[in-house]
Amino acid sequence: MFGGSDIGVDLGTANVLVFMKGKGIVLQEPSVVATDKESGKVIAVGSEARRMLGRTPGNIIATRPLRDGVIADYDVTEKMLRYFLGKADGGRKFFFRPRVIVCIPSGVTGVEERAVKQATIQAGAREAHLIEEPLAAALGAGLDISQPSGSMVVDIGGGTSDIAVLSLGGIVCSKSLRVGGDKIDEAIVKYIRKEYNLAVGDRTGEELKIEIGTAHPPGTESKVMEIRGRDMVSGLPRAVRVSSFQAHAAIKEILDIIVGGIKGVLELTSPELAADIVNKGIIMTGGGALLEGIDRLISEETGLPVYVAEDPLSCVAKGTGRALSNMSVISAANKGKNFKKII
Questions:
Q1: Is 320 in contact with 10 (CB distance < 8 Å)?
Q2: Topology of the domain covering 181-250
């Protein structure tokens, strides 16, 4: 069905990135699918479908088939994967199906793993391999994890935050939190609802997070953004102004969970690996790493240097590319699966 090229997929809750061997990242689109309610036919996928969120008539449903890093709607996920793999291949049809590597959170169950593999095969892959997100993120950030030296990666995606210490090409200890960018957006929406009696959508929450959201309490200069929604008392449209102080207050609880997860993994880390992390610091990847002040917050809470990877959004996808070039990374990771500590 597709070309013979090997393909790496960052199957994210918020975005799907596709890496094609020899070409790099060829596609980056939101994980949204719009379908016809009665026939189940796909009407739009990706950016076009995302624009429909919250704006569809009764006969069309715009959904995100992945929740908290795992498949929530199998059939829609398979259709979405099929569409993205075809689009990445330029819509051409070849005799050879590709080998596909898909990223998964480090805490997924065996059932969830099988669902991802099955959906990938159904979408047209010849072979489906899985790689855990922290491992792919470390590879994509350019870390040399093959040496007997500890590296720590914090990957904050849309549905999950994956924290891991890696050494000798595998994960030594890790934690996968079912919180990420989506939960931050939801926290902002709830805060606006409670504080202003104003109903706003998740897209407004995301825009507010990007424009004025901050992980570190803002100083005297607080940014302000005007947002619009529906008054929950009168039912009429209304605009309010929200400050970065308020945005920080809204998301503090989610940030505390992420910081707690990082501390939990550090407590499990052996003294030797901990010493390596003190020297190297913590590397941050994923869209959540772009939240203003999050590196500073984690550094203050852990006492360790924290660095945001170059182009953190595409690190996991680039890591699948590096894994495609060295399939032993996958087999080594799978062999070591029984020995890693997951909390």
A1: yes
A2: Actin; Chain A, domain 4 (3.90.640)
